[in-house]
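QA checklist item 7 of 12: single-chain prediction sanity check.
[x] sequence parsed
[x] length recorded as 180
[x] structure emitted
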Amino acid sequence: MRGHPRPASVTTGVGGDPETRPDAGFTLLEIVVAMTILAIGGVSIVALFAAAVQLQYKASIEDNVSLLLEPMHQIAQDRVDEYNYDPENPAPEPIELTDVPSQPGYRYEMTFQPADPRLALPGEGYWVKLLIHPPGGGRPVGPPRLWFIKRQIYTREELMRSVTYEEEREQEGDTRDEED
């Protein structure tokens, strides 16, 4: 009986007799399981691609922000150097949401807090908090950048008012070097 397929017989019960089952084809259950596995794999790959695109966008924004940090630091330094200390207003005015000069679309805001007297004399040092917003608004990029900025430029009058080390020692009555 070569070349003639065996006739399939009708079976009763689950699975039936192996001798009488047809030889070819998949069951409906096997096809449903395979399609389910294929669908789960496809959805996982699409989700992975979406996460990769989002991560690439965030990295691009962070890269652009890192290029802005040096000019932003210079803006903060200039603001501190231009500020004339006033005990009633002990820190420079904050910079509200402003466009970044070198990067269109990005905006920043900066606040200044006087430094602890142990770190710097009043009017000499400030904590600066910088927030950079991406194009299109939204939440600031990354955590706030915190800097300690010390004043670097003084007027001639301020320099003339400053006390030299020797004068300071005399005012405190320190005579250790003279006793030796």
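[x] summary fact logged: The chain has four helices and four strands.
[ ] second reviewer sign-off
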